[in-house]
Amino acid sequence: MSIVVQKYGGSSVADVAKLHLVAEKVVTTRAAGHDVVVVVSAMGKTTDELLALAREVDTNPPRRELDMLLSAGERMSMALLSMAIQKRGAPAISFTGSQSGIITNDRHFDARIIDVRPHRVEDELHRGRVVIIAGYQGMSYKREVTTLGRGGSDTTAIAMAAALGASHAEIYSDVDGVYSADPRVVPDAQHLPELRYDEMGRMASAGAKVLHGKAVAMAQEARIAIRARSTFRPGKETHVHQGAAAPSRPCAVVGDRGQVELRFARHARGFEGALDALAEAGVDASFSATEDVARIRLRRREAPDWSRLAEDLVQRFGAGVHEGHGTVTVVGGQRAEVARAVGDLVPGATGMTCDEASVRITLPDAQVDEAVRALHARLVTREGSGS
User: With b meaning 16 or more CB within 10 Å and e meaning fewer, what string describes 55-77?
Assistant: First the structure.
């Protein structure tokens, strides 16, 4: 039988009623003749609640103990879903990340998967059981509990799909795939039935929320197709795979707010020290430099205890902290066309960078949504473009 790997996010298992709906979907998939592996996130906002609880105890909690605490959220989901599936007469068993063979490096709070040894998963599938795996977590080579950072459950699903030889992974959430813009910002955003890995990866790195960039990169490397679907509104999906047609014009406009820029004199020693400190804190950051200034850019929401970290970066490394930045990224299309649209429609742009398949504009936070709407109308829906 073919193996189907399904991942359900926190909104899909937010309460017992939703867990029962997921259990129905899983049992139906198994009844269709598939071996089923399910990866689950913590229920609803459980991870945020546990993190807040930890910070009531210590504003800078030890990362190892955070992993011990936060990994409990997914263990709750996996056990409850296993119960719901068994209640429907289907055999099931739940595994933690370590029990399912997810091996990571020795970092806490943002560990990286270095190997997957799914022997127990394979054994239970052979016995006819549905296997439910706690996402977002694994075990280091030192046999420590670790967590995988943002998007960790997506990464778990892709890694397990690759290790088991599955052709694709189904990623379920509360949206029915990927859109050309955030529908909350652009009400007429277009559903995208398929995307190439590189397009989806650029959208994810620019701030699109449906799929995480690390998981997309892993899927591309392993050639695992991704089917992004809604748990509650079946019908549409976005199929991410290498065979998708390359767009002839821009396919998406992604806005991202809440960014911080750290500035240093070009040859200041603190620049490299700040990069090391951010890496140690598990914060993804990009950097650039001119003859006079070196810059580090990061998302404030990804930095644990940002106020403490910012104070440390200023005192230890002499960083100049500049908040209130945002970006708008146009994925696909011709750079000259995008540049003209930016010149016409985004007077507040403070910078623009390009690669072979996207253009990223920097601008003040408060202007992001307006710029997304204007660029989407001109470049994606072609309103007022004369074409």
Answer: eeeeeebebeebbebbbebbbeb
